[in-house]
Design brief:
The protein is of the alpha/beta class. It contains 8 helices and 10 strands.
């Protein structure tokens, strides 16, 4: 589904954010990209989404190059940002979900069908007319996901999806992420806090200082996380085996 080769990225201030990234993400995979703050996680998924252009190297999504085929890539990839307020643009829940399909220039009837479907899928039907500013943190994150879902992407990218959420909000968002994966979507989630999601992912890639330092099955890497500046799950810190 996603093929990344020799990817480098420099910011205008000279920061060398990514260094020679090579990564393949299979269709239907649930990939965790972890690493300390500043390791390049957000830069990587913004490049995958087509929001940034790489300094060198290439990213192909389902055969489309993010540089030359940006329209096709936008139709395949949706991204849920760390701060949902930066992603929410509608006055009400229903209006916000409709924003993306409207920008695609879809017929009115198809827009209505997609909005109704996304409301149903994300459990927001009873909140459809609620002003967005009155939503809780977990509801806003679900709304951001619903807005992405209405675009019908095959790949969904989550940037620190549990940031600033209380425990019920974390449970709520995680439940829907698992549901999306079970339905066949390819998911990529970035976080420095692996505890919340590691039990549900297929594979993990560990980043540090703009490089992928390790990649593989979670059970094979979990005890190595601390040397890359990532806090391992509690059971590792307590010297126990996974239950």
């Amino acid at each position: 589904m996603i093929e990344i080769k020799n990817l480098d990225h420099h910011y205008p201030d000279g920061t060398h954010a990514l260094k020679g990234i090579n990564l393949t993400i299979q269709k239907g995979e649930f990939l965790l990209v972890c690493g300390p703050n500043g390791s390049g996680k957000t830069t990587l998924i913004r490049l995958i989404s087509g929001l940034f252009k790489p300094t060198s190297g290439s990213i192909h999504v389902h055969g489309f190059n993010t540089l030359n085929d940006s329209k096709e890539v936008r139709g395949l990839v949706g991204m849920v940002f760390q701060d949902p307020d930066s992603q929410i643009v509608g006055e009400t829940v229903k209006e916000d979900i409709a924003f993306g399909p409207e920008n695609l220039g879809l017929p009115v009837e198809e827009i209505r069908e997609r909005v109704d479907w996304a409301l149903q899928v994300m459990g927001l039907k009873d909140l459809s007319e609620k002003p967005c500013y009155l939503l809780s943190g977990g509801e806003k994150r679900r709304l951001a996901i619903a807005g992405v879902m209405a675009m019908k992407p095959q790949v969904i990218l989550f940037d620190e999806p549990f940031a600033n959420l209380d425990y019920p909000g974390i449970q709520e968002v995680l439940r829907y992420m698992i549901q999306l994966h079970q339905e066949g979507h390819t998911l990529v989630v970035t976080t420095h806090d692996v505890e919340k999601v590691i039990a549900h992912v297929n594979r993990m890639a560990v980043m540090q200082r703009g490089e992928i330092k390790a990649s593989g099955l979670p059970e094979n890497l979990v005890k190595e996380l601390s040397r890359f500046g990532v806090r391992p799950p509690c059971y590792v810190l307590l010297g126990r085996e996974k239950m």
